Amino acid sequence: MKLVGCILVAGVLGILAFIGPIGWYALTAIIVGVIFRSFWLLKEIHQHAVPVDPYDGVKDAYERYILEREEREKQEQNG
Fold first, then answer.
1. Residues 29-49, mean pLDDT to the nearest whole number
2. Is 13 within 8 Å of 27 (Cβ atoms)?
3. How many domains does the chain have?
4. What's the chain's Rg over C-alpha atoms?
5. Cα dihedral value 25, 26, 29, 31, nearest 10
6. What are the UniProt keywords, alphabetically (predicted)?
7. Which of 46-69 are b and which e, b meaning 16 or more Cβ less than 10 Å from the residue's Cβ?
8. Residue 26: Cβ-neighbour burial (10 angstroms; 0-12, 13-18, 19+)
9. What is the per-residue pLDDT for 20?
10. Running DSSP on this structure, what letter comes out for residue 51?
11. Coil, strand or helix: which one is 66?
12. If 23 and its partner were Cys, which of 2, 17, 31, 71 is the partner (CB 3.0–4.6 Å)?
């Protein structure tokens, strides 16, 4: 029944699109709504498919660099 309903709605929108601006407005609103919903669903799928990794290699490397630099500066000051 949903398929028949979709076919009827598409037919009515097609007729309205040829008749006047109301059909174009409805057709544009539906297309923009479908595109928006598609992007929203893609975002949700991405959030579930790609988990957030708690390990951040860049942050660890930066912290090691800071520690090594501080140690090097202390060694230069002492000797």
1. 89
2. yes
3. 1
4. 29
5. -110
6. Hydrolase, Protease
7. eeeeeeeeeeeeeeeeeeeeeeee
8. middle
9. 79
10. P
11. helix
12. 17
- Which residue from 7, 12, 13 is spatially nearest to 30, judged by alpha carbons? 13
Specify the pLDDT at position 1.
82
Among candidates 6, 40, 7, 12, which has minimal Cα distance to 26? Answer: 12
Please tell me the predicted confidence (pLDDT) of residue 79.
66
Mean pLDDT of 12-38: 83
Instruction: Please report, in angstroms and rounded to a whole number, the separation of the first and last CA atoms in the chain.
Output: 86
Domain that holds residue 62: 2-78
3-state secondary structure of 54: coil
Confidence at 76, pLDDT banded by 50, 70, 90 = confident
